[in-house]
Protein backbone atom coordinates (compact mmCIF):
# COMPACT_ATOMS: atom_id res chain seq x y z
CA UNK A 1 0.00 0.00 0.00
CA UNK A 2 1.22 3.47 -0.85
CA UNK A 3 -0.32 6.89 -1.22
CA UNK A 4 0.52 10.39 -2.27
CA UNK A 5 0.26 13.36 0.09
CA UNK A 6 1.07 16.94 -0.81
CA UNK A 7 2.99 19.51 1.19
CA UNK A 8 1.61 22.92 0.24
CA UNK A 9 4.31 25.27 1.47
CA UNK A 10 4.21 28.99 0.72
CA UNK A 11 7.24 28.65 -1.55
CA UNK A 12 5.80 25.69 -3.48
CA UNK A 13 3.85 22.44 -3.38
CA UNK A 14 5.58 19.07 -3.53
CA UNK A 15 4.51 15.44 -3.42
CA UNK A 16 5.33 12.96 -0.71
CA UNK A 17 4.86 9.31 -1.59
CA UNK A 18 4.64 7.04 1.44
CA UNK A 19 4.34 3.26 1.68
CA UNK A 20 5.72 0.02 0.37
CA UNK A 21 6.41 0.69 -3.29
CA UNK A 22 6.78 4.47 -2.89
CA UNK A 23 10.20 4.24 -4.55
CA UNK A 24 8.56 3.00 -7.76
CA UNK A 25 7.33 6.58 -8.27
CA UNK A 26 10.87 8.01 -8.43
CA UNK A 27 11.77 7.14 -12.04
CA UNK A 28 8.64 8.79 -13.45
CA UNK A 29 9.30 11.90 -11.39
CA UNK A 30 12.89 12.09 -12.66
CA UNK A 31 11.83 11.62 -16.28
CA UNK A 32 9.40 14.53 -15.80
CA UNK A 33 12.23 16.82 -14.66
CA UNK A 34 14.96 15.53 -16.95
CA UNK A 35 17.92 16.54 -14.71
CA UNK A 36 21.38 16.97 -16.23
CA UNK A 37 22.93 14.77 -13.53
CA UNK A 38 22.05 13.15 -10.20
CA UNK A 39 24.25 13.13 -7.14
CA UNK A 40 23.15 10.47 -4.67
CA UNK A 41 24.34 11.33 -1.16
CA UNK A 42 24.26 8.50 1.33
CA UNK A 43 26.11 6.99 4.31
CA UNK A 44 28.08 3.72 4.46
CA UNK A 45 25.30 1.68 6.12
CA UNK A 46 22.54 2.77 3.77
CA UNK A 47 24.87 2.37 0.81
CA UNK A 48 25.67 -1.20 1.74
CA UNK A 49 22.09 -2.19 2.54
CA UNK A 50 19.99 -0.34 -0.01
CA UNK A 51 21.93 1.48 -2.75
CA UNK A 52 21.45 -1.35 -5.28
CA UNK A 53 17.68 -1.11 -4.84
CA UNK A 54 17.77 2.63 -5.47
CA UNK A 55 20.01 2.31 -8.54
CA UNK A 56 17.71 -0.34 -9.98
CA UNK A 57 14.77 2.06 -9.70
CA UNK A 58 16.69 4.93 -11.28
CA UNK A 59 17.80 2.80 -14.25
CA UNK A 60 20.11 4.08 -17.01
CA UNK A 61 18.25 7.22 -18.02
CA UNK A 62 20.47 9.73 -16.20
CA UNK A 63 24.16 10.12 -15.45
CA UNK A 64 24.72 9.88 -11.71
CA UNK A 65 27.42 10.01 -9.06
CA UNK A 66 27.37 8.52 -5.57
CA UNK A 67 28.92 10.34 -2.63
CA UNK A 68 29.27 8.74 0.80
CA UNK A 69 29.32 10.82 3.97
CA UNK A 70 30.16 9.55 7.48
CA UNK A 71 27.30 8.16 9.58
CA UNK A 72 25.21 10.30 11.91
CA UNK A 73 26.08 13.81 13.10
CA UNK A 74 29.62 13.45 11.74
CA UNK A 75 28.04 14.23 8.37
CA UNK A 76 26.69 17.58 9.57
CA UNK A 77 30.01 19.43 9.84
CA UNK A 78 31.58 22.32 7.90
CA UNK A 79 34.26 19.89 6.69
CA UNK A 80 31.79 17.39 5.27
CA UNK A 81 29.70 20.19 3.79
CA UNK A 82 32.74 21.55 1.94
CA UNK A 83 33.84 18.09 0.81
CA UNK A 84 30.39 17.34 -0.60
CA UNK A 85 30.30 20.64 -2.51
CA UNK A 86 33.82 20.02 -3.84
CA UNK A 87 32.73 16.61 -5.11
CA UNK A 88 29.65 18.15 -6.74
CA UNK A 89 31.84 20.72 -8.53
CA UNK A 90 34.33 18.07 -9.63
CA UNK A 91 31.46 15.95 -10.93
CA UNK A 92 30.37 18.97 -12.97
CA UNK A 93 26.89 19.29 -11.52
CA UNK A 94 25.07 22.33 -12.86
CA UNK A 95 21.90 24.18 -12.02
CA UNK A 96 19.77 21.51 -13.68
CA UNK A 97 21.33 18.74 -11.62
CA UNK A 98 19.65 17.21 -8.57
CA UNK A 99 20.94 16.00 -5.25
CA UNK A 100 19.24 12.86 -3.94
CA UNK A 101 19.40 12.58 -0.13
CA UNK A 102 19.35 8.83 0.50
CA UNK A 103 19.42 8.03 4.20
CA UNK A 104 18.30 9.32 7.57
CA UNK A 105 17.93 12.84 8.88
CA UNK A 106 21.65 13.57 9.09
CA UNK A 107 22.16 12.75 5.41
CA UNK A 108 19.00 14.72 4.58
CA UNK A 109 19.97 17.82 6.57
CA UNK A 110 23.47 18.00 5.04
CA UNK A 111 22.30 17.27 1.49
CA UNK A 112 19.46 19.79 1.75
CA UNK A 113 21.85 22.48 2.94
CA UNK A 114 24.32 21.66 0.16
CA UNK A 115 21.46 21.88 -2.37
CA UNK A 116 20.30 25.18 -0.86
CA UNK A 117 23.71 26.76 -1.39
CA UNK A 118 25.27 25.01 -4.43
CA UNK A 119 25.32 27.64 -7.19
CA UNK A 120 22.90 29.64 -4.99
CA UNK A 121 20.43 26.78 -4.79
CA UNK A 122 19.50 23.73 -6.86
CA UNK A 123 16.81 21.09 -6.47
CA UNK A 124 16.98 18.01 -4.31
CA UNK A 125 14.87 14.98 -3.54
CA UNK A 126 14.47 13.26 -0.19
CA UNK A 127 14.54 9.45 -0.07
CA UNK A 128 14.32 8.81 3.69
CA UNK A 129 15.36 5.47 5.12
CA UNK A 130 14.71 5.93 8.86
CA UNK A 131 11.55 6.34 10.95
CA UNK A 132 12.97 9.63 12.15
CA UNK A 133 13.29 10.98 8.64
CA UNK A 134 9.48 11.12 8.19
CA UNK A 135 10.06 14.37 10.11
CA UNK A 136 13.34 15.62 8.64
CA UNK A 137 12.46 14.90 4.99
CA UNK A 138 9.62 17.40 4.87
CA UNK A 139 9.34 21.04 5.80
CA UNK A 140 12.56 22.32 4.28
CA UNK A 141 14.66 22.79 7.42
CA UNK A 142 18.23 21.98 6.37
CA UNK A 143 21.30 22.43 8.57
CA UNK A 144 24.76 21.55 9.69
CA UNK A 145 26.08 21.87 13.23
CA UNK A 146 28.43 24.55 14.50
CA UNK A 147 31.06 23.51 17.08
CA UNK A 148 29.00 25.54 19.57
CA UNK A 149 25.69 23.79 18.96
CA UNK A 150 23.18 21.87 16.87
CA UNK A 151 21.70 23.01 13.55
CA UNK A 152 22.98 26.54 13.99
CA UNK A 153 23.94 26.99 10.32
CA UNK A 154 21.32 26.23 7.70
CA UNK A 155 18.61 27.34 5.34
CA UNK A 156 14.96 26.75 4.58
CA UNK A 157 14.96 24.86 1.28
CA UNK A 158 12.19 22.40 0.48
CA UNK A 159 12.81 19.23 -1.49
CA UNK A 160 11.16 18.86 -4.90
CA UNK A 161 9.63 15.57 -3.82
CA UNK A 162 9.85 12.91 -1.09
CA UNK A 163 9.78 9.16 -1.72
CA UNK A 164 9.30 7.38 1.61
CA UNK A 165 9.80 3.69 0.89
CA UNK A 166 8.75 1.95 4.10
CA UNK A 167 10.40 -1.39 3.26
CA UNK A 168 13.76 0.31 3.94
CA UNK A 169 12.76 0.54 7.61
CA UNK A 170 13.02 -3.25 8.02
CA UNK A 171 16.80 -3.10 8.45
CA UNK A 172 16.80 -0.41 11.16
CA UNK A 173 18.31 -1.37 14.53
CA UNK A 174 15.92 -1.07 17.45
CA UNK A 175 17.71 1.97 18.87
CA UNK A 176 17.18 3.89 15.62
CA UNK A 177 13.54 2.78 15.54
CA UNK A 178 13.00 4.21 19.02
CA UNK A 179 14.82 7.40 18.13
CA UNK A 180 12.50 7.93 15.19
CA UNK A 181 9.37 6.93 17.09
CA UNK A 182 10.09 9.71 19.62
CA UNK A 183 9.34 12.28 16.90
CA UNK A 184 5.98 10.56 16.24
CA UNK A 185 5.24 10.79 19.98
CA UNK A 186 6.13 14.49 19.76
CA UNK A 187 3.74 14.98 16.85
CA UNK A 188 0.98 13.21 18.78
CA UNK A 189 1.60 15.35 21.91
CA UNK A 190 1.24 18.59 19.96
CA UNK A 191 -1.33 17.08 17.58
CA UNK A 192 -4.24 15.45 19.41
CA UNK A 193 -5.13 13.25 22.42
CA UNK A 194 -6.68 10.60 20.13
CA UNK A 195 -3.46 10.21 18.15
CA UNK A 196 -1.43 9.85 21.35
CA UNK A 197 -3.93 7.40 22.85
CA UNK A 198 -3.72 5.20 19.74
CA UNK A 199 0.07 5.17 19.90
CA UNK A 200 0.02 4.22 23.59
CA UNK A 201 -2.41 1.38 22.92
CA UNK A 202 -0.86 0.02 19.74
CA UNK A 203 2.87 0.44 20.32
CA UNK A 204 3.30 -1.11 23.75
CA UNK A 205 6.85 -2.34 23.20
CA UNK A 206 9.80 -1.71 20.85
CA UNK A 207 9.07 -4.98 19.02
CA UNK A 208 5.91 -3.37 17.65
CA UNK A 209 7.96 -0.84 15.65
CA UNK A 210 7.75 -2.72 12.34
CA UNK A 211 6.73 -1.19 8.98
CA UNK A 212 3.25 -2.79 8.94
CA UNK A 213 2.37 -1.17 12.30
CA UNK A 214 3.99 2.12 11.39
CA UNK A 215 2.15 3.15 8.25
CA UNK A 216 -0.67 4.97 10.07
CA UNK A 217 1.43 6.50 12.88
CA UNK A 218 3.90 7.81 10.29
CA UNK A 219 1.15 9.18 8.09
CA UNK A 220 -0.56 10.87 11.04
CA UNK A 221 2.77 12.28 12.23
CA UNK A 222 3.46 13.66 8.76
CA UNK A 223 -0.01 15.24 8.71
CA UNK A 224 0.76 17.04 11.99
CA UNK A 225 4.06 18.29 10.57
CA UNK A 226 2.37 19.32 7.32
CA UNK A 227 -0.27 21.24 9.30
CA UNK A 228 2.30 23.44 11.05
CA UNK A 229 4.70 23.82 8.10
CA UNK A 230 1.90 24.91 5.79
CA UNK A 231 0.78 27.58 8.25
CA UNK A 232 4.22 28.89 9.10
CA UNK A 233 6.97 27.87 6.71
CA UNK A 234 9.85 29.74 8.35
CA UNK A 235 9.06 29.30 12.04
CA UNK A 236 7.76 32.76 12.72
CA UNK A 237 4.90 31.43 14.87
CA UNK A 238 3.20 28.01 15.18
CA UNK A 239 5.94 25.98 13.48
CA UNK A 240 7.89 26.35 16.72
CA UNK A 241 5.50 23.76 18.23
CA UNK A 242 7.35 21.09 16.20
CA UNK A 243 10.26 21.89 18.48
CA UNK A 244 8.52 20.33 21.51
CA UNK A 245 11.23 18.51 23.51
CA UNK A 246 14.06 19.98 21.43
CA UNK A 247 15.30 22.82 23.67
CA UNK A 248 16.71 20.38 26.20
CA UNK A 249 17.07 17.67 23.51
CA UNK A 250 19.64 19.59 21.47
CA UNK A 251 21.53 20.64 24.63
CA UNK A 252 21.68 16.99 25.72
CA UNK A 253 23.02 15.85 22.35
CA UNK A 254 25.78 18.44 22.52
CA UNK A 255 26.58 17.89 26.20
CA UNK A 256 26.58 14.07 26.11
CA UNK A 257 28.25 13.90 22.70
CA UNK A 258 26.67 13.27 19.30
CA UNK A 259 26.19 9.56 18.76
CA UNK A 260 26.22 8.77 22.48
CA UNK A 261 22.60 9.83 22.54
CA UNK A 262 20.49 9.71 19.37
CA UNK A 263 18.43 12.73 18.35
CA UNK A 264 15.08 11.12 19.18
CA UNK A 265 16.35 9.71 22.48
CA UNK A 266 17.35 13.24 23.50
CA UNK A 267 14.00 14.62 22.32
CA UNK A 268 12.16 12.02 24.44
CA UNK A 269 13.97 13.20 27.58
CA UNK A 270 13.40 16.78 26.46
CA UNK A 271 9.64 16.13 26.23
CA UNK A 272 9.58 14.77 29.79
CA UNK A 273 11.33 17.95 30.92
CA UNK A 274 8.94 20.14 28.93
CA UNK A 275 6.04 18.35 30.57
CA UNK A 276 7.50 19.04 33.99
CA UNK A 277 7.69 22.76 33.06
CA UNK A 278 4.16 22.53 31.64
CA UNK A 279 2.91 21.60 35.10
CA UNK A 280 4.44 24.76 36.54
CA UNK A 281 3.99 27.25 33.68
CA UNK A 282 1.10 26.09 31.50
CA UNK A 283 -1.38 24.54 33.90
CA UNK A 284 -0.77 20.94 32.80
CA UNK A 285 -0.89 18.17 35.44
CA UNK A 286 2.36 17.54 37.31
CA UNK A 287 4.63 14.60 36.37
CA UNK A 288 3.48 11.20 37.64
CA UNK A 289 0.05 12.62 38.50
CA UNK A 290 -2.96 11.34 36.61
CA UNK A 291 -2.47 11.01 32.87
CA UNK A 292 1.20 11.96 32.82
CA UNK A 293 1.99 8.97 35.07
CA UNK A 294 0.70 6.58 32.36
CA UNK A 295 2.61 8.49 29.70
CA UNK A 296 5.89 8.41 31.63
CA UNK A 297 5.54 4.70 32.42
CA UNK A 298 4.82 4.03 28.73
CA UNK A 299 7.99 5.90 27.73
CA UNK A 300 9.97 3.89 30.29
CA UNK A 301 8.51 0.59 29.00
CA UNK A 302 9.58 1.51 25.50
CA UNK A 303 13.10 2.19 26.82
CA UNK A 304 13.36 5.99 26.80
CA UNK A 305 15.29 7.86 29.47
CA UNK A 306 12.90 9.85 31.66
CA UNK A 307 15.59 10.95 34.12
CA UNK A 308 18.72 12.97 33.51
CA UNK A 309 22.07 11.22 33.99
CA UNK A 310 23.37 12.25 37.44
CA UNK A 311 26.72 13.26 35.92
CA UNK A 312 25.16 16.12 33.94
CA UNK A 313 25.20 19.62 35.38
CA UNK A 314 21.85 21.48 35.21
CA UNK A 315 23.75 24.78 35.02
CA UNK A 316 25.78 23.63 32.01
CA UNK A 317 22.67 22.34 30.27
CA UNK A 318 20.92 25.67 30.89
CA UNK A 319 23.97 27.43 29.42
CA UNK A 320 23.85 25.20 26.32
CA UNK A 321 20.16 25.96 25.89
CA UNK A 322 21.00 29.64 25.49
CA UNK A 323 21.97 28.87 21.88
CA UNK A 324 18.46 27.58 21.14
CA UNK A 325 16.97 29.37 18.14
CA UNK A 326 13.67 30.06 19.95
CA UNK A 327 15.49 32.31 22.43
CA UNK A 328 14.19 35.86 22.34
CA UNK A 329 15.70 38.96 23.97
CA UNK A 330 17.97 36.73 26.00
CA UNK A 331 15.08 34.69 27.42
CA UNK A 332 14.71 30.95 26.95
CA UNK A 333 11.40 29.93 25.42
CA UNK A 334 10.00 26.42 25.61
CA UNK A 335 7.19 24.65 23.82
CA UNK A 336 4.91 23.59 26.68
CA UNK A 337 1.57 21.82 26.71
CA UNK A 338 -1.61 23.28 28.15
CA UNK A 339 -3.19 19.97 27.26
CA UNK A 340 -2.31 17.24 24.81
CA UNK A 341 -2.86 18.86 21.43
CA UNK A 342 -2.62 22.40 22.86
CA UNK A 343 1.00 23.54 22.70
CA UNK A 344 2.12 27.02 23.76
CA UNK A 345 5.45 28.83 23.44
CA UNK A 346 6.38 30.23 26.85
CA UNK A 347 9.39 32.05 28.32
CA UNK A 348 10.72 30.29 31.43
CA UNK A 349 13.17 31.95 33.86
CA UNK A 350 16.62 30.37 34.02
CA UNK A 351 16.29 29.65 37.74
CA UNK A 352 13.16 27.57 37.10
CA UNK A 353 14.90 25.73 34.26
CA UNK A 354 17.73 24.76 36.61
CA UNK A 355 15.31 23.80 39.39
CA UNK A 356 13.29 21.48 37.11
CA UNK A 357 16.46 19.95 35.62
CA UNK A 358 17.72 19.23 39.13
CA UNK A 359 14.43 17.51 40.01
CA UNK A 360 14.79 15.32 36.93
CA UNK A 361 18.16 13.93 37.89
CA UNK A 362 18.37 10.17 38.32
CA UNK A 363 20.92 7.92 39.93
N1 LIG B 1 15.30 18.93 9.17
C1 LIG B 1 14.42 18.57 10.07
O1 LIG B 1 13.28 19.05 10.09
C2 LIG B 1 14.80 17.53 11.07
C3 LIG B 1 13.78 16.89 11.81
C4 LIG B 1 14.16 15.92 12.72
C5 LIG B 1 15.50 15.57 12.87
N2 LIG B 1 16.44 16.19 12.12
C6 LIG B 1 17.84 15.77 12.19
O2 LIG B 1 17.91 14.42 11.76
C7 LIG B 1 19.04 13.78 12.35
C8 LIG B 1 18.64 12.45 12.94
O3 LIG B 1 18.01 11.68 11.95
P1 LIG B 1 18.32 10.12 11.77
O4 LIG B 1 18.41 9.47 13.08
O5 LIG B 1 17.42 9.57 10.74
O6 LIG B 1 19.78 10.31 11.13
P2 LIG B 1 20.95 9.45 10.54
O7 LIG B 1 21.03 9.86 9.13
O8 LIG B 1 22.11 9.70 11.42
O9 LIG B 1 20.51 7.92 10.64
C9 LIG B 1 20.62 7.25 11.88
C10 LIG B 1 21.40 5.93 11.74
O10 LIG B 1 20.61 4.97 11.05
C11 LIG B 1 21.35 4.35 10.00
N3 LIG B 1 20.38 3.99 8.97
C12 LIG B 1 19.70 4.82 8.15
N4 LIG B 1 18.79 4.12 7.43
C13 LIG B 1 18.95 2.83 7.77
C14 LIG B 1 18.27 1.64 7.39
N5 LIG B 1 17.26 1.65 6.53
N6 LIG B 1 18.69 0.47 7.93
C15 LIG B 1 19.70 0.46 8.87
N7 LIG B 1 20.35 1.56 9.27
C16 LIG B 1 19.96 2.74 8.75
C17 LIG B 1 22.36 5.39 9.59
O11 LIG B 1 23.47 4.80 8.96
C18 LIG B 1 22.70 6.04 10.93
O12 LIG B 1 23.70 5.28 11.58
C19 LIG B 1 19.57 14.75 13.38
O13 LIG B 1 20.70 15.39 12.86
C20 LIG B 1 18.43 15.74 13.57
O14 LIG B 1 18.91 16.98 13.99
C21 LIG B 1 16.11 17.16 11.23
O1 LIG C 1 10.43 21.01 11.48
C1 LIG C 1 10.60 21.64 12.53
O2 LIG C 1 10.30 22.84 12.64
C2 LIG C 1 11.19 20.97 13.71
O3 LIG C 1 11.46 21.62 14.70
C3 LIG C 1 11.42 19.50 13.61
C4 LIG C 1 12.45 18.95 14.59
O4 LIG C 1 12.12 17.60 14.84
C5 LIG C 1 13.88 18.94 14.02
O5 LIG C 1 14.73 18.25 14.89
C6 LIG C 1 14.46 20.27 13.63
O6 LIG C 1 15.66 20.10 12.91
C7 LIG C 1 14.79 21.13 14.81
O7 LIG C 1 14.89 22.43 14.37
P1 LIG C 1 15.81 23.53 15.01
O8 LIG C 1 15.29 24.77 14.35
O9 LIG C 1 15.59 23.51 16.50
O10 LIG C 1 17.19 23.23 14.63
ZN1 LIG D 1 13.74 16.62 15.88
UniProtKB/TrEMBL annotation:
GO terms for cellular component: cytoplasm. It catalyses: 7-phospho-2-dehydro-3-deoxy-D-arabino-heptonate = 3-dehydroquinate + phosphate. Its EC number is 4.2.3.4. NAD(+) binds at residues 105-109, 129-130, 141, 150, 168-171. Binds 1 divalent metal cation per subunit. Can use either Co(2+) or Zn(2+). GO terms for biological process: amino acid biosynthetic process; aromatic amino acid family biosynthetic process; chorismate biosynthetic process. It is found in: Cytoplasm. It holds the Pfam family DHQ_synthase. Pathway: Metabolic intermediate biosynthesis; chorismate biosynthesis; chorismate from D-erythrose 4-phosphate and phosphoenolpyruvate: step 2/7. Keywords: Amino-acid biosynthesis, Aromatic amino acid biosynthesis, Cobalt, Cytoplasm, Lyase, Metal-binding, NAD, Nucleotide-binding, Zinc. Belongs to the sugar phosphate cyclases superfamily. Dehydroquinate synthase family. Catalyzes the conversion of 3-deoxy-D-arabino-heptulosonate 7-phosphate (DAHP) to dehydroquinate (DHQ). This is 3-dehydroquinate synthase. It comes from Caldibacillus debilis GB1.
Amino acid sequence: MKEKLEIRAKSGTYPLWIGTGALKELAGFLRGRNPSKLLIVTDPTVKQLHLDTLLEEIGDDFPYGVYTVPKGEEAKTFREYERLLTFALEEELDRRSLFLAFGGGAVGDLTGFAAATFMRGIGYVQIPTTILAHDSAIGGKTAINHPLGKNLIGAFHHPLAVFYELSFLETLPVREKLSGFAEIIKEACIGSPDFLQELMEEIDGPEKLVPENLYLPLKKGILVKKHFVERDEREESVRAFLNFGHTLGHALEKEMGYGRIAHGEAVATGMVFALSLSGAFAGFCAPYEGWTGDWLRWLETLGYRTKLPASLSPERLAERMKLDKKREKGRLRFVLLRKIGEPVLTAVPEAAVIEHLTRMKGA
